[in-house]
Amino acid sequence: MSTVAELAPSYQLCEHHAFEAAGTEFLYLVPSGAIFALDPLGKEVISRVSERSYTREELVGRLSDRYKPRQVETVLTELEHSDVISFGTPEMQLPKVPERTFPLQRIVLNVTNQCNLACTYCYEYSADRISQTEGKPKHMNHQVAEAAIDLLIHESGQRRAIHVTFFGGETLLNFSVMRTSVAYAKRKAAEAGKYVEFSLTTNATLLTEEIVDFLSEHHIGVTVSIDGDQELNDKMRVFKDGRGSYDVIVPRIKMLLARHRTNSIGARVTLSSGVSHVRRIYNHLTQEVGFDAAGFSPATANPSRLYSIGTQKMEAVLGGFEELAWEYRDFAVAGKVHGFTNANDTIKELHSGISKAYPCGAGLGLLGVGTAGDISLCHRFVDSPVGKMGHVMNGGVDHDARGEFLTTHHLGARTDCHTCWARPVCAGGCYHEAYIHYGETSAATLHYCDWIRNWNDLCLRIYGEISVTNPSFLDRFNEN
Amino acid sequence: MNSMRAINRKARKVEDLVIAETGEVQALQARGGEGKIYYPMGCTLNFTPGWEIDVSGGTAGLCQPVERDLFDCHLGCGWPAQVPDHLNNAAQWTDKCASAANDWRKVDIVFP
User: Which of A98, A259, A336, A345 could, after both became Cys, cross-link A331 (CB 3.0–4.6 A)?
Assistant: First the structure.
């Protein structure tokens, strides 16, 4: 016969990731993304419940030698309401599927599908290419660009701030459309009572003083693709005759950094089999070339490709990331900004307590547009048979296709992620990465799971240290 | 909260929610951190909820403890209170009561 104690509901721990930093114990709650520092009684309760399940009365009794029963009761109620402990197995919680009318925030205009470089790992031209540009114009004309901007303004609903990103190919091969588009977007946005911002991704080969002055005048944020010093950059980033691009781009980048001071200019490094020297690359780009910030990302490639970075090299990359991330911590403690973009972006997300339903804004707040006006999931899927979502002139956004995508790619459908504590920040990984590896955009990028968890754990510990030693540093992330 | 401290922005939202769901009514003098929810109680010069202030424009003088009613209700507050007429007939009725919280037993008994 069961006793009353056996029948009473007992506590279990809800999903979380525990970590320690600066002598303090923290809890990262999943899926809310809330971060709490534990006080002694909270720590004691969690420690006990992690060993076995306890009824409320048992816990109050066990802790009565050091704490008043009323104090323990209060704490148990708090922990219950915060979803730290619960009676029985906690229910799986997932973010909601967004409304069909979710407003568009950003459009990426692939103003050309041509490039003057022939980078080995390029997802638009390499063996893993998915775009089918046959029959499509090489350059976007201004009518298509303007229709895309009209569509952005229309689809942005009540959202006041909108963003246009110029992308390629090599974007500056079609600078004339970029120039007319900026003027058009500013005029149309003002008429609609909106504020438009711009950004550009370029390989820097075609930068001139005239172009840079234009970028500066219109406060256009710039991302420059460069893979480090001459030896590393020229392994993959080459012209079509095999010559490296370093000597051509660096004087232009220095001119850009000197003349354009109205928006951020960052370096974007693509890591591949021969290029994984994170510290060396970061030091070169910030100290020798003069960038304020640099971010790293592995080349998206089928693992069979020679340039694919592979698991072992990714471990070395994590080591390099760790070194830079601790340096980021040292800077933060001293109240200084460090330019390691990957750490800054993750810490910003952890500070807000983001809990994603989707890994990125593709198909949600962001859409890509190809040279002929075809709308796609994002810039990486432009002119590909996968992720088609309408046409800027013929019917606009295909809301049925978009709704179908958002339903099938919601975190709820990615069952592989349901037991992972890192899902509030990761949410399954890049759709393009998944498609190249597994042939499906809806697959979770399982080959990066351990890496992502290690990276998030590292960033949590660094976040925890900053929160103890210089919490005011985190105020910079408070703006919405 | 008593068991843990909110660190990031989401945690502060969770904390607000937990306090709203489980928190006890507290006096305004009780000091708390950012984001704490209070349920004001006590007399006030300004009757808009959330703006309860005492005669000095702060919250320390609100009627906690209740003995403070003796002064804040009929002098500072102007709220009708059942106290003797201190202007004409019983001007000295609180002379022995320097501090209401401590000396309230020393107020005179006044027969109208």
Answer: A336
Q: Average pLDDT of A248-265?
A: 97
What is the DSSP annotation of A217-229?
HTT-EEEEE--SS
Distance in angstroms (rounded) separating the CA atoms of residues A167 and A368: 9
The type of residue at A237 is R
pLDDT, tens only, A83-132: 999 998 777 778 888 887 899 999 999 999 999 999 999 987 777 888 88
Is residue A431 a part of any domain in this protein? Answer: no
- Contact status, residue B89 vs residue B52, Cβ threshold 8 Å: no
Last residue of a domain, one of A404, A421, A441: A404
- Quick check: is B103 catalytic? no
Higher pLDDT, B107 or A435: A435
Q: Do the interacting molecules here have an ipTM over 0.95?
A: no
CB of B105 within 8 Å of a chain A CB? The answer is no
Residue numbers in A near B6 (CB within 8 A): 34-36
The beta-strand segments (E) located in A279-357 are 293-298
Question: Residues A82, A112: one domain?
Answer: no
What's B73's DSSP letter? Answer: I
Q: Which of the residues B1, B3, B19 would you substitute to probe the A interface, choosing the one with the greatest number of A C-beta atoms within 10 Å? A: B3
Residues A129 and A207 in one domain: yes
The residues in B 22-41 lying below 8 A from A, measured between CB atoms, are: 22
pLDDT exceeds cutoff 80 at A17: yes
Place of tokens 């809806």: A442
Residues A39, B2: C-beta atoms closer than 8 Å = yes
Q: Closest to A81 (Cβ–Cβ): which among B6, B13, B22? A: B22
B9-22 and A341-352 helices, crossing angle to 10°? 10
d(CA A19, CA A22): 10
Coil, helix or strand at residue A268:
strand
- CA–CA gap between residue A304 and residue A298 (Å, rounded): 15
Closest by CA position to A408, among listed A391, A431, A426: A431
Q: Distance from B16 to chain A by nearest Cα, in Å?
A: 10
Low-confidence ranges of chain B (pLDDT < 70): 23-82, 101, 112
Residue numbers in B near A79 (CB within 8 A): 3-4
**Domains of chain B, start order:** 1-39 (no CATH), 42-112 (4.10.940)
Q: In this complex, do A33 and B7 lie within 8 Å of one another by their Cβ atoms?
A: no
Looking at A404, A426, A447, the residue that finishes a domain is A404
- Contact indicator for A310, A303 with CB cutoff of 8 Å: yes
What's this model's pTM, rounded to 2 decimal places?
A: 0.84
Alpha carbon A357 to its chain's center: 13
Instruction: Give me the domain span that covers residue A64.
Output: 4-87
> d(Cα A424, Cα A95) in Å, to the nearest integer?
9
**Between B90 and A408, where is the model more confident?**
A408
Number of domains, chain A: 2
Determine the average pLDDT of the residues in A355-371.
Answer: 96
Q: Say how far apart CA A170 and CA A478 lie, in whole Å.
A: 35
**Contact in structure between A307 and A298 (CB atoms under 8 Å):** no
